[in-house]
Amino acid sequence: MPDESDATDRQLSDDEFRPALARLAAGVLFRDGGGRVLLVKPTYKRGWDLPGGYVEPGEAPKRAAAREVAEELGLEVAVGRLLVVDWAPHPAEGDKLLFIFDGGTLDHALLAGAELQASEIGEVRFVADGELSALLPDRLVRRVRSALTAPADAYLEHGEAATD
């Protein structure tokens, strides 16, 4: 952080000041009674993902996670504690800051009664840890596995514990 003792009355011009403009996304990690992870298969992109999505302007990441679960799965659930936050810039999409919150255990009967938003989600299923690598990009596998094993809030970079 800048040292306040170095502050001057001069304002930085727009050309001099370039704040980070990271995209924010928030997801929820749900597990079933056997510890398997809930994945969703979006209709608008290839592959599988956690329930969640982008944070809207002025919206808190935890609130965005709950909103996305309600939109995608039709479930109103209490989103739990932050499991991980991952600084994961993407070559095509720029800077990203990704949050995963704990969704706790999700009952199969509750999920069976969920109303999927057909325009966004084509399929949902619980998968074992050993299946994650076949369904998710490597960076998301690392993020999910960190979320599953993190003893407390964890800061990551590209899905791995950050080092100095």
List the helices and strands and how they pair.
Layout: E1 23-31, E2 37-42, E3 52-54, H1 61-73, E4 82-87, E5 96-105, H2 108-112, E6 121-127, H3 132-135, H4 138-149, E7 154-157, E8 160-161
Parallel strand pairs: 1-5, 4-7
Antiparallel strand pairs: 1-3, 2-6, 4-5, 7-8
Structural notes for this entry:
It is globular, with a radius of gyration of 18 Å. Strand 4 (82-87) and strand 5 form a beta hairpin. It has 164 residues and is an alpha/beta fold. 21% of the residues lie in helices and 29% in strands. The strands form 2 sheets. Strands 3-1-5-4-7-8 form a 6-stranded mixed sheet, sandwiched between helices. Strands 2-6 form a two-stranded antiparallel ribbon. The chain has a single domain, classed as Nucleoside Triphosphate Pyrophosphohydrolase (Alpha-Beta Complex), CATH 3.90.79.10. The chain is built from 4 helices and 8 strands; from the N terminus they run E-E-E-H-E-E-H-E-H-H-E-E.
Brief sketch in words of this structure:
The chain has helices spanning 61-73, 108-112, 132-135, 138-149, and strands at 23-31, 37-42, 52-54, 82-87, 96-105, 121-127, 154-157, 160-161. The protein has 164 residues and is of the alpha/beta class.
List keywords for this structure.
alpha/beta, globular, 6-stranded mixed beta sheet, Nucleoside Triphosphate Pyrophosphohydrolase, 4 helices
Residue-averaged pLDDT: 87
Proportion of residues in β-strands: 25-35%
Which stretches are low in confidence, meaning pLDDT under 50 for 5 or more residues running? Answer: none
Q: CATH homologous superfamily?
A: Nucleoside Triphosphate Pyrophosphohydrolase
CATH topology: Nucleoside Triphosphate Pyrophosphohydrolase
State the domain count.
1
The gyration radius over C-alpha positions equals 18 Å
Task: Name the CATH architecture.
Answer: Alpha-Beta Complex
CATH class annotation: Alpha Beta
- The total of beta strands comes to 8
Main β sheet profile: 6 strands, mixed
Overall spatial form: globular
Distance between the termini: 16 Å
Q: Work out the helicity level.
A: 10-25%
Major sheet: arrangement of strands: 3-1-5-4-7-8
Count every helix, treating DSSP H or I runs of 4 or more residues as helices: 4
Secondary-structure content class: alpha/beta
Along the chain, the helix and strand elements come as: EEEHEEHEHHEE
